[in-house]
Design a protein that fits this description.
single chain, alpha+beta, Nuclear Transport Factor 2, Chain: A, seven-stranded mixed beta sheet, 4 helices
């Protein structure tokens, strides 16, 4: 009698383990679902395009934004808060910041490149910017976001969004100071 109960219990345990193993195997067989929608795709933090945008950020902080000429299309359109600039104008504008500020920094940059299923490629950049006014000595900080659109391994468009009031105020102070000194301030 004891053996029958033991045998029945052993068979029940085997069935339980069998069904548990089958359930486990079936759950492991779940395949990863890939979203094929046009605005889905893959994101990469260590690809060449991301590294280029990191390099351009470093060039900006040292006042050598002309490095962008290597990577921007000559006929590119670059927007800051929806105001459009040519490639030449945006590079001159970024270099102008080094006349306004010392200690330019991109703090804690987050830069990734998105490869969309529709073929578009954008590098996205989120940064905490800081600099010290060359005129007043005041420290400034702001957050900005930029997207960099790639076409044939060149940057054809940028869209940057940030509060420009502080930079405009510093540019006005720069113009006033240089006008008082009789210097040309066409920036």
């Amino acid at each position: 009698m004891f053996k029958k109960k033991e045998l029945k219990s052993s068979q029940s345990m085997k069935k339980y383990i069998y069904y548990l193993a089958i359930g486990f195997l079936l759950s492991c067989n779940e395949s990863i679902k890939i979203d094929t929608a046009p605005l889905s795709g893959t994101i990469n933090q260590s690809d060449e395009k991301t590294k280029i945008v990191e390099k351009l950020g470093k060039a900006y902080t040292t006042g050598t934004s002309e490095l962008a000429n290597e990577y921007f299309t000559p006929d590119g359109v670059h927007k800051v808060n929806d105001v459009a600039y040519s490639t030449k104008e945006i590079i001159e504008g970024y270099n102008f910041h080094s006349l306004l500020f010392d200690d330019l920094k991109h703090n804690d940059p987050h830069i990734t490149t998105m490869f969309y299923n529709n073929g578009d490629v954008f590098t996205n950049q989120w940064v905490h910017w800081s600099g010290v006014s060359k005129i007043t000595g005041q420290s400034h900080a702001l957050d900005f976001y930029c997207s960099w659109k790639w076409e044939n391994d060149k940057i054809a468009e940028t869209h940057c969004y940030f509060d420009t009031r502080m930079i405009e105020k510093e540019a006005d102070l720069f113009q006033q100071k240089n006008s008082a000194n009789g210097e040309n301030t066409n920036q």
